[in-house]
Specification:
By secondary structure, the chain is mainly alpha-helical. It contains 22 helices and six strands. Strands 1, 2, 3, 4, 5 and 6 form a six-stranded mixed beta sheet that branches. Helix 19 links the parallel strand 1 and strand 2. Helix 8 packs antiparallel against helix 9 and helix 10 runs antiparallel to helix 14. About 0% of the residues have low confidence.
């Protein structure tokens, strides 16, 4: 029998297509005119967040303005001495113990000769911009996440120590760049050549700043941590890279020892141990911890959160990185100097930034979670700007005193509490005054001070605001007020605090 009934219609419902959120680059590119869309437009849009971080960082650095710091002036003078008397000439400034005189001081002196202090400070800014890009590339390579790399770079950039270092003409910025280069080579590299470049960057960092020797274990820890996130490569690649880095680092440090001689060993001992200096600075321990806490609050809390987010069985390495990064600034306290501690906070930020980026990346995995991340990225630059402004005005602006010197310039010996800074601005002229620091005169005692005024030794005496009161200084002011050969200039207000006054006396009777 034949079935002549109508065929049954079977309906087939396709499976639902899951919703996939478009990448933000594609979504933004969709707002552009049709002729401007495409892969190239998406690539350019993808670079905008990194560019924004760099622009904000550069703006914070360029907003800092003050006259030359004593460390800057001394380093440039060391470089001038090296160029004048040969690279092997012994440096008279004590700052030569911070790094090899033949490296950064010579570079700083050359840049200063062509572009002044602004050119030397611009080198630091460029070095820090390169550090941010290298840190971003390192973190992105370790996790295959551009977002993680961007947030790690931003966590480093928006710290007061990084901003302060980027505005200062010291070797710290170049040292940070070399450490970031070593991190990138150690994480992204897979060959012996990458290991050799990593070792060379570490050796150059030590040559720039001897304190970088203490950071080598911390850098190795960060490399191991990031390579663990990445996958690490084969054992053969790891061994080749480690051997190449060790050989190059050891060889270059040995060459630096031969080049610098005993000064290299002395600098390492003074910078990394400073025996006997810690007790003298225990009084300042509380305020210093407070300032460092303000500097590293944001990145430190984020790094702590990033460590807590690590798998329970793999927290030992992040904990070691966290502790090492937090301890780094206290190396400066051992050497005895709050300013050094401020600069060393940038080294801490470099080590803590990957952990902080891990926390920020975890917070931003959904659209609404970007709200607290953006709040952090807004608050952090504000705090960094305020803190770095206070750091950068930690020394007196000498422009008011410099105007008096230029107005009444006469050859002779000048006495000042800011002699190093004023010497930098008045050097290189035929009628340039010779400068003597007040500490040299005060050390001779009140009687020597009165005798120097009676003998009309100084063509001008310049005392900065807030200079320390001492019996010798009281004797100096008393002798100047009693002398008929010196006249006090009118009230000279400070640029930062108008109520503060520079004390300036000018020699009238130049005939003995």
């Amino acid at each position: 029998m034949i079935d002549v009934s109508a065929p049954t219609v079977r309906s087939h419902t396709p499976p639902p297509i899951p919703y996939r959120r478009l990448p933000w680059r594609t979504a933004v590119a969709g707002l552009l005119p049709l002729r401007w869309r495409g892969a190239a437009a998406e690539r350019r849009i993808g670079r905008l967040p990194v560019l924004a971080v760099l622009v904000v960082f550069a703006a914070m650095v360029l907003a800092l303005d003050n006259t030359v710091f004593t460390d800057e002036a001394a380093l440039i003078q060391i470089g001038r001495d090296q160029l004048s008397y040969g690279l092997g000439a012994a440096a008279t400034e004590p700052l030569h113990l911070r790094g090899a005189p033949a490296f950064y001081p010579v570079l700083a002196a050359v840049l200063d000769a062509f572009g002044g202090l602004a050119a030397v400070r611009m080198l630091s800014l460029c070095a820090l911009l390169g550090t941010i890009l290298l840190l971003r590339a390192t973190a992105a390579t370790a996790t295959s996440s551009a977002r993680f790399g961007l947030l790690s770079g931003a966590a480093f950039a928006f710290t007061a120590g990084a901003v302060y270092t980027g505005a200062l003409a010291t070797p710290d910025a170049l040292c940070l760049l070399m450490l970031a280069l070593a991190l990138w080579c150690g994480v992204a590299g897979r060959t012996a050549g990458a290991g050799a470049l990593c070792g060379g960057a570490l050796a150059f960092a030590v040559a720039l700043e001897y304190v970088a020797l203490l950071l080598l274990p911390a850098v190795v820890l960060v490399i191991v941590l990031l390579r663990r996130w990445k996958g690490g490569g084969t054992w053969s690649e790891r061994v080749q890279m480690a051997l190449a880095a060790t050989v190059v680092l050891t060889g270059l440090l040995a060459g630096l020892l031969l080049l610098e001689g005993p000064a290299f060993t002395e600098g390492l001992v003074v910078t990394t141990t400073a025996p006997g200096t810690l007790p003298a600075h225990l009084v300042d321990l509380g305020p210093t911890i407070g300032w460092l806490g303000l500097d590293l609050t944001v990145v430190g809390l984020l790094a702590l959160a990033g460590t807590a987010l690590a798998p329970r069985g793999a927290r030992l390495l992040p904990v070691c990185v966290l502790v090492t990064g937090a301890v780094v600034p206290f190396v400066a306290m051992w050497a005895g100097g709050t300013t050094s501690a401020n600069r060393l906070s940038a080294y801490s930020a470099l080590l803590l930034a990957p952990l902080a980026g891990q926390a920020l990346a975890a917070m931003s995995r959904s659209l609404l979670r970007w709200v607290p991340v953006l709040a952090v990225l807004v608050v952090a630059p504000v705090l960094a700007t305020a803190q770095s402004q206070m750091m950068f005005h930690g020394w007196v602006d000498v422009r008011p005193a410099l105007a008096v010197v230029e107005r009444h310039r006469t050859p002779g010996l000048y006495l000042s509490t800011a002699s190093d800074t004023l010497r930098y601005y008045t050097r290189g002229r035929l009628d340039a005054p010779r400068w003597e620091g007040t500490s040299t005169l005060y050390a001779a005692g009140p009687d020597a001070v009165r005798g120097a005024v009676a003998a009309r030794r100084y063509a001008m005496v310049i005392l900065q605001p807030y200079s320390a009161a001492a019996p010798a200084q009281d004797a100096l002011l008393d002798a100047l007020n009693r002398s008929a050969d010196y006249m006090q200039e009118g009230p000279i207000a400070d640029t930062v605090d108008p109520e503060a006054r520079w004390t300036v006396y000018r020699l009238l009777n130049t005939v003995p």
